[in-house]
Amino acid sequence: MGGECVRSVSCDEEGVNEEARLIPPGWYQDGEQDVLRWWDGSEWSDPSRDPKLRPGQGTAVDSVVLTFVADPRWPQPPAGWHPAPMWEPGQGWSKPIDHLWRTVGLDDEAAVLELSNVLAILSEEGADTPDIWRLDNRHTFPLIWVAPPNWPSPAPGWSPPDRWKAPRQWGPAPRDWQFWQHDPAAITHATAVIIANADRRSRALVRSTVGIATLLSHAETLLCDASRLTPLALSPLPSAVRNGFPVSAPQPLAESLKSAHHRLNRSVSNLRTYLLRIAYGLGEVDEWLWQLRRALVDARETYRQAAKGAAEGVFSATIEQIQREVSRLKPRHTQRGEHLVAVVAELSEDIEARARAMNAQHARDAADSPESSINGLAQWELAEVLATEHLRSIGFRDAQRAPAGTDGGFDVEGRGVVAQVKYRTTAVGRPDVQRLVGANQHGAQPVFYSRAGYSQSAIDYARQTGVALFEVDAAESYVQPVNEVATALAKTGR
Asked: Among residues 414, 241, 415, which one has the least CA distance to residue 318?
């Protein structure tokens, strides 16, 4: 699709298709040329890559530096590089352990505040599925009588009385016309509310560079997952290859997956450029933002279904090929038959392993790992920042994180309080709490923060020694008390 007018459609004075103004912003092929051009919703860009997009510099949104940081195990790009349209990671590249888009220039407290705002908005959205963008409960609206378009419109709330017949001069109703319908006005209103809320949330997310970086990193993660998942879903099962059945995904399913992969890549590219243009003041936030986000969600769901279909196709085609060989076996070929039965059993284990790998690929998120980071802070660091802010909020106003490199047994200290933060995936045991108590030589209030909770022996020991136990979640930005000491401390403070 190029920038020239289509003859059959009228053009405005700028020479732009009126129909083109209904096309979402994105990268489109310029006619038959092998060149992509950016359409911003009203006009075409000249170059295939806008030179004004300069990640690594302060943004027009809030002057915070936004930059793309490649995973350290990837080939390293030059400074200031950012992905070109339709770029994607190489198939052999590792899954990134950190967010690919970072902000620079925010101190820890500002970063936590901005991130908390972003997480609150994403939490309001709920699960990131197509259901949040569209109305799927039409059947719950009341039924009303609706006249065909060629009949006079009845008064609001009117329905035909018993034995009523339409006057003959009205003519016949269209074939298959549904006279009783779920209230179209109510559905229109509910849909408008959904759209308004989606638009409001999306606009709120891009008010800060942290929000833009979060959306960019999420989109890039989907693309990274797809670059690793597509070849996995299409490839033969290892055990099948070992036993002479190197069956790949059937051609229609393979083409469907490749098409879905391409659509996902284009959706990521479109949202990426749109967000960067907002960040650097090259475009205004408009109603296209939430629609581009929805397009990405829809593309992801389509891709997941296609990947699942391709993987199941590999398994089915492999079983069919084995069954065909079994059907050709003679009765005397018992040894070969027994071998094929064993192959099928091995295949079942193989497909289960592949399904687990694919599900993990979908479900895995950078926030699940305590070693990963949010906004450039490792999550264990962010947990310490949250603990510090929490202690200040309940009265220990001079609480500070311990300087890096110190080993006094505390992660956070303040007048009258000492705290330890363990941000790991296993519960804190009694020895950890004992070390905190042993290091507390000045009678300060001991406080413990844990990501994964506490063992029962740790809880019992904390009750005996007056240690306040809290759970902390860096990704969700919350702290909550676990024992009575913590509850009392949260209510009364120091």
From this structure: 241
